[in-house]
Amino acid sequence: MSGHGTPIPMTAHRASPLSGTAEVPGDKSISHRALILGALSVGETVITGLLEGQDVLDTARAMRAFGAGVTRDEDGTWRVQGVGVGGFAEPDQVIDCGNSGTGVRLIMGAMATSPITATFTGDASLNKRPMARVTDPLTLFGARAVGRAGGRLPMTIVGAEQPVPVRYTVPVPSAQVKSAVLLAGLNAPGQTVVIEREATRDHTERMLAGFGAEITTEVTEEGRVITLTGQPELRPQTIAVPRDPSSAAFPVCAALIVPGSDVLVPNIGLNPTRAGLFTTLREMGADLSYENLHEEGGEPVADLRARFSPDLRGIEVPPERAASMIDEYPVLSVVAAFATGQTVMRGVKELRVKESDRIEAMATGLRAGGVEVEDGPDWWIVHGRGHGTVTGGQTCESHLDHRIAMSFLVMGMATENPVSVDDASPIATSFPIFEPLMAALGADIRRGT
Description:
Shape: globular
Radius of gyration: 21 Å
Distance between the termini: 16 Å
Strand content: 25-35%
């Protein structure tokens, strides 16, 4: 699959019981950060388990453009020869980040406090997404940003020649914004402070500490106060990337709604700032268990076992949980369609500005498949029909959004009639082995509509 090429329509048909082991790819969030921090360290960082989806490959290419050495061994091990904090070279060409909001925003932060200039672009979806939420705080360091109307790509960042440290309160829960500010703070003298009122995924803080940065987190009345001491010499690391919980969501949710299923998803990252979906599913009555709990590289991991759960019930998802599962709401809404009663999701306005307006995309597709959905600016409610009564039969627009495409394909595995998506090619950005992995479990997904 290609996230940048000819559209690839796909159709999911009602599946036999799903069974087996789902070896999902490495965590996308950690993969991006491993490449970027490896490039900012001094020496060779070795990465195993890197997600080789298009988003991460675009970040690897960007790190090469900024002067780092990035190579892949035949066995899938990646090696990054870092240039050190403040050591980025000015790229010769425009940096194309494809579909990746995480990649472009983190890379902007990493280069914004070096005296270089870089121009960023992306695909049609990424070029519609707002960048001001990142560029606004970067200008506080002394950087300048010039882009299209509304703060959109293509955009040129002129790095600060004499950066100053910043104290910044993140206005909306966003790990990308927080991480961009922290990465910019690496090359600013003194202490950069980021305050977030609601906790978001903390991979950046964990990984910065692992690379030797002086970073502390304190919970105060203001929220989580993260303090980073600038201009460290980062030490190269050996990183084993855990498997991606956001990718695991799809085989897990499919197993819950396809009768007779029993699927094991090994070695999944269970960082508490990322595991909100699994907590929510268990509250809905899902037969979901954790096995072999342990830790890798400072991140908690476990094997997840998901079994068919015929008695799922709708719940109200706590708004404060949104940041820990923001990418999983689309597939949660599919599970909610097969539950009994209402599933209420609030505090999710961030979904309106992802790769697509995910609330609108999912609500439209679910309604076309016979499911009642209500939605507002930062909330939506799925009225579950219960197991065995979801009609399906619709063709859904993916809007160049990998998670929308995969969510509707999961839906089609348990509906009365097949469910199609107009373009599944964006799945390659995050889950390039989705098709063969689901087929090996017993899913019936076919190309075409």
